[in-house]
Amino acid sequence: MTLRWLLFGAYVVLTVWLAANHELWRDEADSWLLARDGSLLDIFKIMPDAGHPPLWYLLLKPFASAGLSWRWMQAINLLAMCLATGLLIFKSGFDLIFVAPVVLSFVFSYEFPVVARNYSLGILGLFLYSAIYRSRHRNNSVRLILPHILMCFSTVHFLGLNAVLFLDRGVTAFKKNKIWMNFLREWLKSERIFLPLFVLSVAILWPSGKGQFSADFFEHFIPMNFRDSVAQSILPFEPATSLTFALAVSVYALVLASNREFVRTAGLFFAGVGIISAIFIFKYYSGAPRHSGLFFVWLCACMWMTAPTHASAGLPLFHRRRLAPIAMWMACAWNLPVVASVWELEATGNFSDAHEAAAVLNSAPASGRQVVCWIPRNCMAILPYLSSDQKFWYPLINREGTFDFWDKKSNAVTEMAINHSIGIDEVLRLLPSHFKNWGKSDGPLFVSTWPIIDPEKFGLKLISPAKKSAWRILDESFWIYGPQEMETP
Question: What is the pTM of this model?
Answer without folding.
Answer: 0.95
